[in-house]
Amino acid sequence: MKILITGGAGFIGSHIQDRLIKLKHQVGIVDSLRSGKKEHLSPKSEFFKVDVRDKVKLEKVFKTFKPEVIFHLAAQNEVPYSMDHPEEDADMNILGMINLLELSKKYSIKKIIYSNTGGAYYGEVPEKNMPIKETELVLKPTSFYGVSKAAAESYLKLYGNLYGINWVSLRYSNVYGPRQDGNREAGVVAIFTHKLLNKEQPIMNGNGKHTRDYVFVMDVVEANIKALNYKKSDFFNISTSKHVSNNEVFAAISKSLKSKMKPIKGPNRPGDPLHNTLSNKKAAKLLGWKPKVNFKQGVKLTIEYYNRLPKIN
Hints:
The protein starts with a strand and ends in a 5-residue tail after the last helix. The chain has helices spanning 11-22, 55-65, 79-84, 86-106, 144-163, 188-197, 217-229, 246-257, 281-287, 295-308, and strands spanning 2-6, 26-30, 46-48, 69-72, 111-117, 166-172, 174-176, 203-205, 211-212, 214-216, 234-238, 244-245, 264-266. Strand 1, helix 1 (11-22) and strand 2 (26-30) form a beta-alpha-beta unit. The protein contains 10 helices and 13 strands. 40% of the residues lie in helices and 17% in strands. It is globular, with a radius of gyration of 19 Å. By secondary structure, it is of the alpha/beta class.
C-alpha cells in the first residue's frame, strides 16, 4: 500500500515510517523539517520537503506519490509556543488539516489516521473524572494547542462524513521515547535526560506534583498499525491509564543515570492542566490495543538510546 506520512521526519512519525516499511508498505514522507530531522528518514522512504500549509506544493506530492492512506502528524505541537503564537498554531494545525482534507477529497484518499493530543485535548478535568474517557465534555480548555488540535479533529469527522473518507483519530497522552528532542519545550523525559547527560541545570516547572500519563512511543506506533487495520471511523485515547508526577519522572531518570543533580523549581507553564490521565478501555475493546511498556522500562530504553548517540543534539 502507498502511505503518506505528514511530519514523518519527526519523533513519532519516523517510528511509524520504520514500522510501515517493515510491513512492506511504500512510504512517502512530507515534512518541512521545522522540528523533524533528516537523519530520521529511511532511505526506503520517498521524501518531500513540504509544509502542509502550502497547498500547491502539497498537491504536487499527491499527484507524484499517489497515496492511498495518510498518517497525519505534521503539527505545531508545543503548548507554551501556542500560548505566545495562537495564530501560527491555528494556521499549522487547523488550516494544515483543511489543506490535507481538501486534497484527500479530490484524490480519493481511502483513510486518514490523525495523531491528536489527548494530553491537551480535554483541558482541566476534575480528578474524580480521571482517567478521562473519550465521552468527557471539554468544558475548560487550557491551551490554544489543545483547541486547535481538537478543531482539526472536528474537521476530520465532518469531511469523513460528507465525503466518505474513512478516518481514525488517536488522542495520545504524553508520548516519550527514543528520538524525542530534548532541546524543545515539550517532552519532559527527553528534556530531563538531555540536561542530566550534559550536566546542565534541569528546571522543573511548578512544584513537581503535576501528573501526566506517559505512553512509550513504540506502543503508540502499534496503536497506529491497529488503526490502519480498523474498518470503521472513530476516535480513541492512546494511553497507559496511569499517572506519574514530574517528581517521579525526574527521580526515575536521575536514578537510571546515577546523577546527583537536583532540579530547581521554575514557574508553572501557561496552558498546562495540573493533572491528566486518560482511559484506554475503548482502544482495548475496539482496537485490541494495550500498552506493553511500563514507565520504568520505557525510561530505561530511552536512556539507552541517548547513551548510544555521539552527542545530544
